[in-house]
Design goal:
Blueprint: H1 2-18, H2 34-66, H3 70-73, H4 75-98, H5 100-119, H6 124-152, H7 157-187, H8 192-195, H9 197-211, H10 224-247, H11 252-274, H12 288-318, H13 323-328, H14 331-351, H15 353-372, H16 380-407, H17 415-449, H18 458-491, H19 495-498, H20 510-513, H21 534-553
Helix pairs in contact: 2-4, 2-6, 2-7, 2-9, 4-5, 4-6, 4-10, 4-17, 5-6, 5-9, 6-7, 6-17, 7-14, 7-16, 10-11, 10-17, 12-16, 12-17, 12-18, 14-15, 14-16, 15-16, 15-18, 17-18
C-alpha cells in the first residue's frame, strides 16, 4: 500500500508539473505579428485537410508499387481516418490541460516523422503503420490549432476574421488535395504524397514558438475513464461507417459496431457528468444554437464528401479527364468557397448566424439538385462547373457561420474540447454521409444495370450505370440539406430573439457561458467554482446541464426557477 501511495504521489507531481500555468517562455518570441500567427495556424489546418484527400488520387500507383489487394488498398485512407477520428476528442482536451501550443507542436512532430516513414515504405504493413501514426499526430495538432485562434486573437472582428480564414482554408484544402494529388501523381512518385508534409511541418515547428503564444493551461486531473470511452465511441462509429461504405450495412462487423458505440456512449455520458475535468464538457451543449451547429456539421459534411467522391469519378470515368485535369476542375469551387467564407464573416455582425446558415444550406441543396440532373450527354461546363461553384458558395458561407457560432463565447478552459468536438463532428459526418450515399449509389446502379435502354455498347453501358447511380446519390444528398435546414430553423434563433446585435447566441454574454439559461438553481448557474458548493452539487449541476441540453435539442425550454418566493 505504501508503494502504491508513493507511486500515486509521483504521478500526481509529474502531472502537476506538466499542467502548471504558463511561464514567460510560453509567450511568442515575436509577439504582435497577427498575420504570421494566423498564417502558421492556417498552414497547419490546410496541411491536415490536404492529407485527407491528396492520397486518394495516388491510390492506383500505391497499389501497384506495394502490391496491395483491392480490399487492403482502402485501408490506406481508412487507417488515417480511424486514428484521427478516434483520438480527436482526447487530443483537444489534452491541449486544454497540458497546453495547446505544446500539443500543437507535439502532434506536428509525430505527423512529420510518420510522413517521412510512410514515404520510405516498402511494404503494406509499413505504409499502414505510418498512416495510423499520421492520424494520431493530426488528432492532437488539429484541435489545438483551432483552439489557439481563441488564445491569440481578441474576441470580436479580429477573431472573426481569423476563424473565417482558418475555416475556409481547411475546407478548401479538401479540394486542393485533389489538385495536388493529380499533380504529384502526374509529375513525380506517389511517395511525394507523404514527403511533401515533411518540409511544411518543419517550417511550422520553427514558426510556432516565434509567433504563437501559449494559451492558459487549466490544472486538473486527467479524465482517464472519459478518454478511454471517447476513443472507444469514436473508433466504433468511424469503423462501423467505414465498413458500411465498403461492405454494406448487413455485415456482422458493421451491425456489431453501432450497438457497441451506443453502449460506450451511454457510459461516456455517465462518466462525464461525474468527472472534474471531462473530455467532453456537457456545458458546451447547453446552448441550443451551439448544439444545433454541431448537429449541422454532422449533417452537412456528408453531402460535401459524397460530392467530391462522385464528381471525381464522373470527371475521370465519364468525361475522360486525366487525374491532374480532374483535380484542376475543382479549383473554381475552392475559390468560391474561400470567397463566400470571407464575405459571410463580414455579414455575421449585421445579420446574425441564422440567415447565413439558411442561405448556405439552400445553395448547397441547389447545387446538389443541379448535379442530380447530370446525364451521359452533359459537359463539364453545363453539368459540373456551375453547380460546383454554387456548392462552394453554400459550403463556405454555412460552415463559416456554424463554426463561428460553436467557438464564440467558449471559455478558455473549454476551447480545446469545443474545437475537438467540432472536428469530430466533421469527420463523423463525412464517413456517415459517404457510407449512406455510397449505399444509395450502389442500389441505384444495380437497378440501372438490370433496366438498360436498348442499343448500348459496353462502354456506353458502364457510363449509363455510373451516371444513373450518381444522379440518385446526389438526389439522396438533397435530403441531408433538408434535415440541416430543419435543424437550423428549430435550433438557431433569429437575431431579435437572441437579444444581441451580433446574434451570437453562444457568445452573447458571460452569463450564458456560466449557465444562466440552463434552468439550474441560481447558486449553481452563477459561475462560482464547483468545489465551493461541494461534490454532490457538482454532480447535480452536471446532470441538470445534460438534461437541459437534451430538452433544448427537442425544442422544450426548461422552466426557470423564480427568484422570488
Amino acid at each position: 500500500m505504501a508503494g502504491r501511495h508513493v507511486t500515486g504521489m509521483a504521478r500526481d507531481a509529474l502531472w502537476n508539473k506538466l499542467a502548471a500555468g504558463p511561464g514567460p517562455r510560453d509567450e511568442a518570441r515575436l509577439p504582435g505579428h497577427a498575420t504570421a500567427t494566423l498564417l502558421t495556424i492556417v498552414i497547419c489546418q490546410f496541411m491536415i485537410g490536404l492529407d485527407a484527400t491528396v492520397v486518394n488520387i495516388a491510390l492506383p500507383k500505391i497499389r501497384a508499387a506495394l502490391h496491395f489487394t483491392p480490399t487492403s488498398l482502402a485501408w490506406v485512407v481508412s487507417a488515417y481516418i480511424l486514428a484521427f477520428g478516434g483520438l480527436l476528442l482526447l487530443g483537444g482536451r489534452t491541449g486544454d490541460i497540458l497546453g495547446r501550443r505544446r500539443m500543437f507542436m507535439s502532434g506536428l512532430s509525430l505527423f512529420a516523422v510518420a510522413s517521412l516513414f510512410g514515404g520510405l515504405a516498402t511494404s503494406v504493413t509499413w505504409l499502414l503503420s505510418a498512416r495510423v501514426a499520421q492520424g494520431v499526430g493530426a488528432a492532437f495538432a488539429a484541435p489545438s490549432a483551432l483552439a489557439l485562434v481563441t488564445a491569440n486573437f481578441r474576441e470580436g472582428k479580429e477573431r472573426d476574421r481569423a476563424l473565417a480564414v482558418v475555416t475556409g482554408s481547411y475546407a478548401a484544402s479538401l479540394i486542393v488535395g485533389l489538385i495536388a494529388g493529380g499533380m504529384i501523381t502526374a509529375w513525380a512518385s506517389w511517395r511525394w504524397v507523404m514527403f511533401i508534409n515533411v518540409p511544411i511541418t518543419i517550417a511550422l515547428l520553427v514558426l510556432a514558438p516565434l509567433f504563437i503564444s501559449e494559451a492558459e493551461r487549466h490544472r486538473a486531473r486527467f479524465d482517464l475513464t472519459g478518454a478511454l470511452l471517447s476513443i472507444g465511441v469514436m473508433t466504433a462509429l468511424v469503423y462501423g461507417f467505414l465498413q458500411a461504405a465498403s461492405s454494406g450495412w448487413h455485415g456482422a462487423v458493421t451491425i456489431a459496431m453501432f450497438p457497441a458505440a451506443a453502449v460506450l456512449l451511454a457510459a461516456l455520458i455517465v462518466a462525464e457528468t461525474r468527472a472534474e475535468q471531462p473530455i467532453i464538457p456537457l456545458r458546451l451543449l447547453r446552448h441550443r444554437g451551439r448544439s444545433a451547429s454541431y448537429l449541422n456539421l454532422l449533417i452537412l459534411t456528408g453531402p460535401m464528401a459524397a460530392m467530391n467522391f462522385f464528381v471525381t469519378q464522373l470527371l475521370q470515368n465519364v468525361l475522360g479527364f486525366s487525374p491532374l485535369t480532374a483535380g484542376l476542375a475543382f479549383l473554381p469551387m475552392g475559390v468560391a468557397l474561400m470567397a463566400a467564407g470571407g464575405l459571410s464573416m463580414q455579414l455575421l455582425r449585421r445579420t446574425g448566424h441564422r440567415p447565413i446558415v439558411i442561405a448556405g444550406i439552400v445553395l448547397v441543396g441547389g447545387g446538389l439538385f443541379w448535379l442530380s440532373r447530370f446525364s451521359v450527354s452533359s459537359t463539364y461546363a453545363s453539368g459540373i462547373l456551375v453547380p460546383s461553384v454554387i456548392m462552394g458558395l453554400g459550403v463556405g458561407s454555412s460552415f463559416t457561420a456554424v463554426n463561428e457560432m460553436i467557438l464564440s463565447g467558449v471559455s478558455g478552459r473549454d476551447s480545446g474540447a469545443a474545437s475537438s468536438l467540432l472536428e469530430a463532428m466533421q469527420w463523423l459526418g463525412s464517413v456517415l454521409g459517404l457510407s449512406i450515399l455510397v449505399t444509395v449509389f450502389g442500389a441505384a446502379s444495380r437497378h440501372a444495370a438490370s433496366h438498360l435502354p436498348p442499343g448500348l455498347n459496353a462502354p456506353g453501358t458502364t457510363r449509363y450505370v455510373l451516371v444513373h447511380g450518381m444522379s440518385v446519390g446526389f438526389t439522396g444528398a438533397i435530403g441531408f440539406t433538408g434535415l440541416a435546414l430543419a435543424v437550423t430553423l428549430l435550433g438557431i434563433r433569429r437575431p431579435a430573439a437572441a437579444g444581441n446585435a451580433a446574434a451570437g447566441e453562444p457568445g452573447t454574454t458571460a452569463a450564458a457561458e456560466s449557465g444562466a439559461d440552463s434552468g439550474l438553481p441560481a447558486h449553481l448557474s452563477s459561475g462560482q467554482p464547483a468545489d465551493s458548493v461541494g461534490p454532490r452539487w457538482h454532480h447535480r449541476r452536471a446532470v441538470a446541464g445534460g438534461v437541459a441540453a437534451l430538452w433544448r435539442a427537442i425544442g422544450i425550454s426548461p422552466a426557470r426557477r423564480s427568484s422570488t418566493p
